[in-house]
Amino acid sequence: MSDPLSLVVSAVRPLAEPPEGPGWNYREMAELIGDAPRRPAAVLVGWREGVQPRLVLTVRNDSLQAHAGQVAFPGGRTDPEDADAVATALRESEEEVGLDRRLVTPIGFLDSFDTISGYRITPVVARIAPEASLYPAPAEVAEVFEVPLGFFLDPANLRRYTMDFRGHRRDMVEFIHGGHRIWGATAAMLVNLLQRMGRL
Questions:
Q1: Which of 26, 70, 135, 142: CA 20 to 30 A from 62?
Q2: Which DSSP symbol is given to 126?
Q3: CB-side exposure of 195: number of CA atoms within 13 Å?
Q4: Where is each Nudix hydrolase domain found (predicted)?
Q5: Is 8 a residue whose pLDDT tops 90?
Q6: How far is Cα 114 from Cα 60, in angstroms, rounded to an integer?
Q7: d(Cα 164, Cα 142) in Å, to the nearest integer?
Q8: Which residues contact 130 (CB under 8 A, 6 or more apart)?
Q9: How many whole angstroms from its chain centre is CA 120?
Q10: Of the candidates 197, 167, 170, 169, the residue with the CA atom closest to the CA atom of residue 183
Q11: Chain centroid, CA 64 distance in Å
Q12: pLDDT tens per residue, range 102-124
C-alpha cells in the first residue's frame, strides 16, 4: 500500500531548504501593517500517521491576550536558544500539547507566512507517530483535536469570503469541521499546502 502521506511529502520544501525571505503574503501584509522587520516564529503542521492521516490542531485558551479562542497549529515565537524553526516547532508543541519530540519526524516546510500581528511563521510539516499522546496545557490551550487529511482534500470544505480590515478588503478562507472554525493564518497555511499539492 502506498504511503497515505505521500501527497504531502512530495509537496513540501525539503528540510535542507527552509524558506527564506518574505512570506508568500508579504505584499498584502505590508499594505496593512507596514514593512517593519517581522519576528520569527514556527508552527508544527503535524500529521498523525495512519490509514487516514489526521492533522493535529489546537483551540487557544480564551484568556490569552492574542488570538484567544482561535484554532491554531501548535507553535509560537522563536526563542534565542532555538537552533532553527524545527527546534521552535518541536519545543512549542511539547509545551502546548505534550507532544514527545521523539515521536515526531519532520519532513519539510511550507512557504513562510507573515501575520497581521507582525510575525513571520515557518510552517514545519511533520509525521506524528500513531501512539503519541496529546493533552492541552491549560494556560495556553483549551482543546486539542484532529482533522482527517481527506477533509482538506475535498474542495467543498473550503469556503472563501472577504472581510474589511482597517479600510482594506481582504480575501479570506476558512474550513468548518466538527464545530471548529479553522480560519485566519491557520487556514491560509493549509491553503498554501493544498496549492503546493496541486489541489487548488
A1: 26
A2: E
A3: 9
A4: 37-169
A5: yes
A6: 19
A7: 28
A8: 48, 49, 50
A9: 12
A10: 170
A11: 18
A12: 999 999 999 999 998 899 999 99
